[in-house]
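I have been asked to look over a protein record a colleague put together. Thanks in advance; the entry in question is below.
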Amino acid sequence: MLNPFFKNAGPFKIEKLLNIVGIKNIDNFKSDKIFNVTDLKNATKKDLTFFHSKRYSLLASQTKASYCVTLSSLSKFLPDSCKKIIVDNVLLDIAKITKEFYPDSVVDDFDESVKDISKTTFRKKVKFGKNILIGKNVKIGKNCSIGHNTIIEQNVEIGSNCSIGSNVIIRDTIIKDNVSILDGCVIGKKGFGFFPNNERNIRYPHIGIVIINEYCEIGCGSTIDRGSLSNTIIGKNTYLDNQVHIAHNNKIGNNCIIAGQVGFAGSSSLGNNVMIGGQAGVSGHLKIGNNVQIGGGSGVINDIPDNTKVMGYPAKSLREFIKDKR
């Protein structure tokens, strides 16, 4: 399951979902039921998915979804077993459908369920500071500590031997063992996903979570957004410096080192053993390979293959960068 926390309001008849996006020709489909909406890779024959960019054509050709919201120009990449729902704006229409399945995933109001930790069972097993609030559906392992003025909102799992700093807010997140979250972090809030509109911008539902694997450290003031239709994942033994922003759906590999004020747009992936210098920026929907080194202040706007060193804006091989500066 993509998100073990959000309640799925489905299943729905495909007739209802097609009506939501304004498609009236439904005679052939109205008896079908759809149980979930998810990405191309994780979809099953009970699910509906979406396909909006040729970049994902390989995943599209392998999807097991029974239905896919897509563009006419991309429909040829989908398997015959997947029925095509042709629309003009894939992301806008899949947002409408996702909201139907997960109506609580758009708004991130403060958690009204929180209680002072002294009034919960965690008071006996957690070392904690002053003014700590804990929401519903929270699990915390052994030998953990939580600093002053921190709020662990609903739907959080924290492993053993973890250190959560002061002034931290966490929700919709799974944190594995031996992780340190330093002061001032915000983890698991919805990402910066919306469709501009002159009258009122339309928010995209974020039904994914954040997963932080073992032995990670998240620096002070960092923000990690939960995923939209997939999860945001931080690999094992990866360290983030202060004021790093990880947007929704990013996949960060194992043993990565990311210096201060680095920013990631959504839906990019990093391999293992990646090193990124301070104030670099990584655009969305990119693939950064293993053992890549990105110089400080660089702007990455293209995929980077394994074992490459890059620098500059736009980021280019270090050899080319040095040559151009002579």
Summary: The mean pLDDT is 92. DSSP finds four helices and 37 strands in the chain.
